[in-house]
Design brief:
Length: 374
């Protein structure tokens, strides 16, 4: 009996040791030195931009802390930029992917199947089919996924912006090469953007945005789990269970949220920055800028404008300009100016990753343009 007991003890000891070793492997790997990459900044930038067709699946978390007030019609956006967003993603191609955003009430999922978008709301047991995308939509949680955000930011860079290599880092098991983007413009609130990507195929795995005058990132998005295996097609296509309500709808665009009424015309430049072309049907919004120094102007009609002024006053400071008064909200990344003009009492919202001085100048230029009768 003693021999059998000793043999059994040895077997169980071996099993326990093996189990402990397997459980410790991720920690052991994470503690190993990161393999550096000799890829140049130019080559890494090119691979990041070309990575849109690389399949992947995983789990990512994004943390943004801007302290923005909740503005009327834009509640989902302000929550997105003042919280931690957790989501699972299965990405087959630009036309076929799925992102599941986790919430306290369950989850809100987005499926992209060719040009058709599906939105699944767990708490309402509702699947919404959106066959025609709007010309411009509001930001959503999937825009914060590291590959999506990295390609967007790198794609916006101006010719004079500077790219350089930074030390590699291990992210979700990937020995990722680091790339830093420093804007040349002094008008943007962005000090630097750090991106880590797989040097072999350019797939971004982590992004950090640093604001001017801040010591820590104001936005961080990173994979915590990642597999670069191709997900099954059936994973990225919705399969509603019996009893799930399915409807077809149009995704709300900015025109609808802002009232869709008559809007004033906009000049070709504001604060020395050129107007950016937007879809012709989007009359309610105008955008200006180059590179990462960009801002948008949104006329806020009637009650929406008054609600925006009230909400902004709780979080910002009063400003008086030559043609009116308003409220200025400063964050490490975004600046918001809600401006009540003396010209027909328009309420205008200016917002972007630019300095307060630039938005104040843009507001003054716009009212000057109105006063001249275009």
């Amino acid at each position: 009996m003693r021999v059998v007991g000793r043999q059994t003890l040895r077997r169980w000891s071996a099993v326990l040791c093996g189990t402990a070793l397997l459980g410790a492997l991720p920690a052991i790997r994470a503690a190993l030195p990161v393999t550096g990459s000799g890829i140049s900044a130019v080559a890494l930038r090119a691979r990041i931009l070309a990575s849109a067709r690389m399949p992947y699946q995983g789990y990512a978390e994004s943390t943004v802390d801007l302290g923005l007030p909740v503005l009327p019609g834009l509640q989902s956006v302000t929550r997105l930029f003042d919280s931690t967003t957790s989501q699972y993603v299965w990405y087959l191609s630009p036309a076929h992917w799925r992102a599941d955003g986790l919430t306290a009430a369950g989850e809100n999922d987005v499926y992209q199947v060719c040009r058709v978008t599906y939105q699944w709301n767990y708490s309402h047991n509702l699947l919404t089919r959106i066959p025609v995308p709007p010309p411009v939509r509001l930001p959503r949680s999937a825009d914060l996924l590291p590959p999506v955000l990295a390609r967007t930011l790198v794609g916006l860079a101006a010719p004079g912006d500077h790219f350089s290599r930074i030390p590699s880092a291990r992210v979700a098991g990937v020995d990722a090469a680091g790339l830093r983007l420093v804007p040349a413009s002094s008008s943007t609130t962005i000090r630097a953007i750090d991106i880590w990507a797989d040097p072999a195929d350019g797939l971004p795995v982590k992004v950090q945005i640093l604001g001017r005058g801040t010591s820590r990132p104001v936005l961080t998005t990173s994979f915590l789990e990642l597999s670069q295996q191709r997900p099954a097609y059936r994973t990225v296509v919705p399969h509603p269970a019996p009893g799930v309500d399915t409807v077809t709808a149009s995704l709300p665009d900015l025109n609808g949220l802002l009232g869709g009424g008559r809007t004033p015309p906009f000049p070709p430049a504001l604060a020395g920055l050129p107007r950016i072309a937007t879809p012709g049907s989007l009359a309610a919004v105008s955008a200006y800028g180059t590179g990462l120094a960009r801002f948008a102007v949104l006329p806020l009609p009637g009650r929406t404008g008054q609600q925006a002024v009230t909400a902004a006053a709780r979080a910002g400071s009063a400003v008086r300009l030559r043609h009116g008064q308003g409220v200025l909200i400063r964050t490490p990344l975004l600046t918001v100016l809600v401006f009540i003009t003396a010209y027909h009492h328009h309420v205008l919202l200016f917002t972007g990753s630019v300095t307060p001085a630039l938005l104040e100048r843009a507001a003054t230029d716009l009212v000057d343009f109105f006063a001249r009768g275009r």
